[in-house]
UniProtKB/TrEMBL annotation:
Residues 379-434 are annotated as: Disordered. Belongs to the DEAD box helicase family. This is DEAD/DEAH box helicase. PANTHER family: ATP-DEPENDENT RNA HELICASE RHLE-RELATED, ATP-DEPENDENT RNA HELICASE SRMB. InterPro entries: DEAD/DEAH_box_helicase_dom (IPR011545), DEAD/DEAH_RhlB (IPR044742), DEAD_box_RNA_helicase (IPR050079), Helicase_ATP-bd (IPR014001), Helicase_C-like (IPR001650), P-loop_NTPase (IPR027417), RNA-helicase_DEAD-box_CS (IPR000629), RNA_helicase_DEAD_Q_motif (IPR014014). Residues 232-377 form the Helicase C-terminal domain. It comes from Denitrificimonas caeni. Residues 392-414 have a biased composition (Basic residues). GO terms for molecular function: ATP binding; hydrolase activity; nucleic acid binding; RNA helicase activity.
Amino acid sequence: MFSELALHERLLKALAELNFTEPTPVQAAAIPAALEGRDLRVIARTGSGKTAAFVLPLLNRFISGAKPRVAIRSLILLPTRELARQTLAEVERFSQFTFLKSGIITGGEDFKEQGALLRKDPDVLIATPGRLIEHLNAGHLKLDQVEVLVLDEADRMLDMGFAEDMQRLVAECSARQQTLLFSATTGGNALREMVNNVLDNPLHLMVNQIAEMNESTRQQIITADDVPHKERLTHWLLTNEPFRKALVFTNTRVQADRLYGRLVAQDINAFVLHGDKDQKDRKRALELFSQGTSRVLVATDVAARGLDIDGLDLVINFDMPRSGDEYLHRIGRTGRAGEEGLAISLICHNDWNLMSSVERYLKQTFERRVIKELKGSYQGPKNVKASGKAAGTKKKKSAQKKNAAKVTKKPSKRRQPEGTFVVSSDGHAPLRKK
């Protein structure tokens, strides 16, 4: 029970108002340690309640030690605007019975208005790295009194190329007393290096092993011949598969726009979301999708992190993601909070090895599915290695090439043309002149 955690009564009142009674495993594990002031490295599956696990201790710290608002006291860094807005909404909900103020700084919004917000020194600042660096360069921002730094989805920020920005922002928070790093995946070497450099004697919490993640989501693959075949399969699934809301992922913005156009032309009410879209369009697409006005959203991986959409029970990977971590984030948009979900990946010949790598990473085998009406000629590679990847055919060298490789060229004994030099074997002085 939340009432058993050492949280301030105003936070407990907000939790009761929101009908939060029982903490999730990640909240039960992380909140007590965070309340003690320890640095944390937490890995837990998406949809497990990670946001509340760092927001509640952060707010509790500031309620207990109330100070006049003269500086930004905490910073939450996230990879995308959408996740930042969602986190702001959570902070505002949990702090509704307090005097704590929060603010958000992301790209796509008015720069001067954001500067005015920063001058008000919100207790909790939620931001994406790129735009925050711009304000730092413009002299609008001081982080030297930040007490708590939260890095949410740090691996994604590194993947997006924010390594230098993150390092600079961390350095600016020179007086911080606590750092919390949360993610749904273990990340790679860059993240491990950041953990070593940023966290001070952290408590490592892995609430879910990789094999346990997304247990409530059924995972299938359907083979396809090419991109047009994938488009027909996607249309069939969105027309015949029962779902409340569906999220279709592509690897590129160009493919997202193309697929969106195809679906709209076939009378499917859909929206598209990717990094090239105007901020107003991105916000509108998410709002209409959340409200159910549109049941289909075509997106790049900008929508793969942290978004919590009620009723999202179908995820289609039009393109196979490039890593197991990204796959987990994508399918983590469904099957949340104990609900069942369905994730379907469309696999061409050039997707097979990626799919096989993800299966090995998750230590499981996806369910194979065939749609009879659209069955293609490609049903997977003819020969498969022990790893599950397609077995390629190596070109054999011809006997002639092998023999040629063994032959050592001998110096030519031909008479040199008149008026030329015969060069010595060391390539330097001429021996004689004809």
